[in-house]
Amino acid sequence: xxxxxxxxxxxxxxxxxxxxxxxxxxxxxxxxxxxxxxxxxxxxxxxxxxxxxxxxxxxxxxxxxxxxxxxxxxxxxxxxxxxxxxxxxxxxxxxxxxxxxxxxxxxxxxxxxxxxxxxxxxxxxxxxxxxxxxxxxxxxxxxxxxxxxxxxxxxxxxxxxxxxxxxxxxxxxxxxxxxxxxxxxxxxxxxxxxxxxxxxxxxxxxxxxxxxxxxxxxxxxxxxxxxxxxxxxxxxxxxxxxxxxxxxxxxxxxxxxxxxxxxxxxxxxxxxxxxxxxxxxxxxxxxxxxxxxxxxxxxxxxxxxxxxxxxxxxxxxxxxxxxxxxxxxxxxxxxxxxxxxxxxxxxxxxxxxxxxxxxxxxxxxxxxxxxxxxxxxxxxxxxxxxxxxxxxxxxxxxxxxxxxxxxxxxxxxxxxxxxxxxxxxxxxxxxxxx
Length: 434
Prior knowledge:
The structure is a single chain. α9 packs parallel to α12. The chain is α/β, with parallel strands linked by helices. The protein has two domains: about 220 residues, Rossmann fold (3-Layer(aba) Sandwich); about 170 residues, Dimethylsulfoxide Reductase, domain 2 (3-Layer(aba) Sandwich). The chain is built from 18 helices and 18 strands. An eight-stranded mixed sheet has the order 5-4-16-15-14-6-7-13, covered by helices on one side. The chain has a five-stranded parallel sheet with strand order 10-9-8-11-12. About 35% of the residues lie in helices and about 20% in strands.
């Protein structure tokens, strides 16, 4: 029996690093898991999932890895402008190799961030926001006012509350939850309502309006504000919440996709940025923190920022490689003539009309599991599960790098190994043409 004391969970961007795993070395199987959430346990045990891709495929027929690599190289070699997409569920090294493929082919490289959080980065580019960044450890140690706005971590990040925000003790929260005040702002009643001191339910599209009212209250304005709020919302509650924000020792607003991906997202983000900015200028330490989803989406962002200065959606066929609305994945599907998809299911997650465009081009899929995208792919590679069957480096949602261990063996290569073989095949093919 082998015990791994501090395994990192590769489910979400919390990357909980206190998981204890018991492994039957002779049987090559996980026999016990402690400190992981229910979904994290499922991820570690997904090695037994019946939905695993068993063998490489070419045009729906099973083959071997050599033939599949040769076919993938052939598709990309003949492509004039391929799309490389996904990678948020891959290790940092695999992300780097995929980026090299995109550069080599002068193709498009994009990640899920362009769909989930693109407007957040657009707002960040407009000005200097020193309040944006904070380590989760800093928030855990200092925050006494915590707002979840358009987010429900109980569902999306089950251990977020117990490790980084509400329940843990901190340097200035020695009694944990007893020293913290929880505020939830959302368009639906969620599980957070039960533990929140204040719960403000909004109608869809009202986030920006409420944030604007709070900002003006922070600045000391009072006249004409009640008329801005719908009758169903208790204006006095908004006043009391804002008053609590102004008295915070250290506050944080965790924003979720309810804010960042809604129909009114541009106005929402701008208004909440203005609120946090006003609080800091009033002398209250407040930070804004987006709730990242996939376990290594921050690794992909960090890589692109280091290599190019841009966070996502890069078109290496253009002089101006980064231009949201033109170079991001949903905007280039009419232009690309092949796609390399790694650890993502765009046929399910893209808008229907956009997803159908993938049917008009050869698709190479690298993934441990069968998805609807598998059915439309010309070449399919089954891979090891990063953080369970293969090691790697992943970046927590606050940008902290952590090592993912290999827990058990498997017969599949890692996505990094497959990408590396494809890349080397492309380089050899290019040299032969010289």
